[in-house]
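Task card 7
Instruction: Convert sequence to structure tokens.
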Amino acid sequence: MITFLRIDGRLIHGQVVEAWLPGLKVARVVVADDEAAHSPLMKTAMGLAVPPELEVDIRPLDEVPFPAIASDSIRTLLLLRDIPALIQAKASGLPRTRVNLGNVHHAPMRRQVSTSVFLNAEELAQLKALDGEGWEIEARGVPAERPVHFSEMVERFGKG
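Output:
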């Protein structure tokens, strides 16, 4: 069961380990990312960062069995690098779920929509489509922060 899906360019890092894992009480972390899956160093570092009692599965995005993960009984945190990865995961069978935008870094043509999330027009349009399909989308760095709901992100984007 996918308990939470987080978009974060850094994937597994301190905020995830110290705040999200204990707060979500998950038993498994799935990282769906080509770069991480093909880097022995990244895989080892991320695996060592997570408490040993948690299962860690790091795979290329197109090799993750999203429907199977969503339908099993294991509480799972799914980590994706960016919005295009979310769209690809959906095309690969990821069912509608709650999405947290954790860290989407500043880049040209991106506008700030929360403390740590910057989106461009294409990403905003992709998220609008998901929102229209009933996906719950929020932004926050840690569970203790007040979530910025998608409607508020749209408003902030418009103010540029």
